[in-house]
Design goal:
The structure is a homodimer of 344-residue chains. Chain A folds into two domains: 140 residues, 2-Layer Sandwich (Nucleotidyltransferase, domain 5), CATH 3.30.420; 178 residues, ATPase, nucleotide binding domain (Nucleotidyltransferase, domain 5, 2-Layer Sandwich). Chain A has eleven helices and twelve strands. The longest helix of chain A is centred in the C-terminal third of the chain and has 25 residues. Chain A has 344 residues and is an alpha/beta fold. A five-stranded mixed beta sheet of chain A has the order 3-2-1-4-7. The first copy, chain A, has a five-stranded mixed beta sheet with strand order 10-9-8-11-12, with helices on both faces. Chain A has a two-stranded antiparallel ribbon with strand order 5-6. Chains A and B meet through helix 8 and helix 10 of A and helix 8 and helix 10 of B.
């Protein structure tokens, strides 16, 4: 489900842009108008095993379907934005060896999606696309520059400076989950296999691991009973336990916020953005829940203690606002920025 | 002494730019041609106690003196670049509360130097200016983007992306010495008073502190004898001990390189630049000495272990090349970039 209200083709401001959010499981495609308002969206399975050429064809078809569903004239759609997981070579428009898309190595995805959609394609990292969406019409719409962390199984990142996504020279910019927060030899191991990275402490994977370790070491928690009853350890279960007064769950979640705060300080002292936006599934309900509000508060507290006074006071730290739509809206936004730049 | 060969006004390519490198002790001013070649330089004491207005007047006079010394026509000098220590508000052209320039709070330094020199002034952070110098005509001249760390009493930083110094929204970008490498409660305290920052581990201050701690804890070293004989503990003394086979000194210096490598990885995973340049006094002779070469090698080794394979392979990590001239050359380079942007 799109969390955004859709706007009709007659009320929308042309030109229009199609945004493609390619994930390991699903591909979400939506048509977006020149003001960043979604006009339609469709979702199709990624089905990586059928291979990248077949998926590129389905992405092209989904673009055409999103245009049809929006009731838009084909000529008003001028460009496609494609946000994809890495690894990738953004200037070359190629995937390299994407771990979440096995068998898609070295695929020239930008040009193949362009072929099947009949439109020029702007190619971006999925983290950069989500950040651009929040920057354009989400939490960051008043910011001149922004850092976004997407909290989930891993920790994704996006950095927007001078209206560009900071892709880096080797398409490895804004890998914010992989900044180091602990230099020591006994630091935790990240999902990527290296030591001391933020993702090894503050991702959903890390929270579950740290919780399991605490339970194994004999810490008391209502979670033990639930797990004995066959429930599965998830961030949602840990969040529910915290909300019902489980002090271990509360402690581990607030510790997660502390780790994030440490990472946010390093990003602030590097980029010094107007704002830092936290998105993704592992935000414990965000502003909607008391736990989500305390989580954000704890991140800010850590920033206050560790950052220079001026950025600590002035940098806005907030939750994302576009939910699962950030990816396709942001991909469309990157296509729009390229389009307007080319038009001059 | 300038380490660069000076070029004559007749051989130089106009227009010319004056670069001012304002330090807590000295002000270095030089005239630079359109290709980044220094034509002259002068140094005057900062003498912060006489106040900022008097210093601004001396900076203006030094600019005129540098033009005279170069034998350049006044009309060919089109702009001044001023690199200054912070804290500062770069867009406003103001110092805020610079700790190294006591009593200079809230001084509109850009406009006052412009008044006394009779030229428009581009205002920059000293770390950004040094980085721009290396990027323009130093170690980074082949890079499209670059991160620089200046290793001394503290650790300064500069980041160049899209031919701009990344100043940040609150003039606190590229504070690379203040990214966090240890989140823990017992982390070392930085010169800035906060915990876990890179500068608290890898600056000259930190190296001396860690050495003193090791000696106090009873570690054996030739340094003990030297200190007993009244020598003062300095990074140079520690470096000399390492070069003559002192294993404690060697260990502490290589540990410093390890800390730096950790910080460099965080910067690489954020900016993903073409290159990282290490400058400043605490580089143990750089490429000129065996110790300097081993120091750089140890930084690279840490990067290889902690960074993603593609940036680890492709990112150049090297020493700076302009020495103490980077500041004024880079300030002139920032003035030049502003000049050519305005000309269109």
């Amino acid at each position: 489900m799109s969390t955004r209200q859709l706007i009709s083709a007659t009320a929308a401001k042309p030109p229009f842009f199609a945004g493609v959010d390619l994930g390991g499981t699903n591909i979400k495609v939506g048509l977006v108008d020149d003001l960043g308002r979604p006009m339609s969206w469709v979702s199709v399975p990624t089905d990586p095993r059928t291979g990248p050429e077949d998926a590129a064809r389905r992405m092209g078809e989904a673009v055409l379907e999103s245009i049809k569903q929006a009731g838009a004239e084909r000529e008003r759609v001028v460009r496609v934005g494609l946000g994809s997981p890495g690894t990738m070579d953004i200037p070359a428009g190629k995937l390299l060896e994407p771990p979440n898309l096995p068998g898609w190595d070295n695929f020239p995805i930008r040009d193949r999606v362009s072929y099947y959609s009949g439109l020029p394609v702007s190619f971006a990292n999925d983290g950069g696309a989500a950040a651009y969406g929040e920057f354009w019409v989400g939490s960051g719409e008043d910011f001149r520059s922004m850092v976004m962390l997407t909290l989930g199984t891993g920790i994704g990142g996006g950095i927007i400076v001078n209206n560009f996504s900071l892709d880096g020279e080797h398409s490895h910019g804004a890998e914010c989950g992989h900044i180091i927060i602990d230099y020591q030899a006994d630091a935790r191991v990240c999902n990527c296999g290296r030591k001391g990275h933020l993702e090894g402490y503050a991702s959903a994977t890390a929270l579950m691991k740290r919780t399991q370790e605490a339970l194994d070491s004999g810490r008391k928690s209502s979670l033990s009973h639930r797990l004995d009853n066959g429930e599965k350890l998830t961030p949602i279960l840990i969040g529910m336990a915290a909300e019902t007064g489980d002090s271990l769950a509360e402690e581990l979640i607030m510790e997660t916020a502390m780790y994030l705060g440490v990472g946010v300080v390093s990003l602030m002292h590097t980029i010094d953005p107007d704002g830092v936006v936290l998105g993704g599934a592992m935000t414990f309900g965000g502003h909607e829940t008391e736990l989500g509000r305390r989580f954000l508060q704890r991140v800010k507290q850590e920033v206050d203690e560790r950052a220079f006074p001026i950025p600590a006071q002035k940098t806005v730290i907030d939750y994302a606002r576009l939910g699962g739509d950030a990816g396709f809206i942001g991909a469309a936004g990157i296509a729009r920025a390229d389009y307007h730049r080319e038009k001059g």
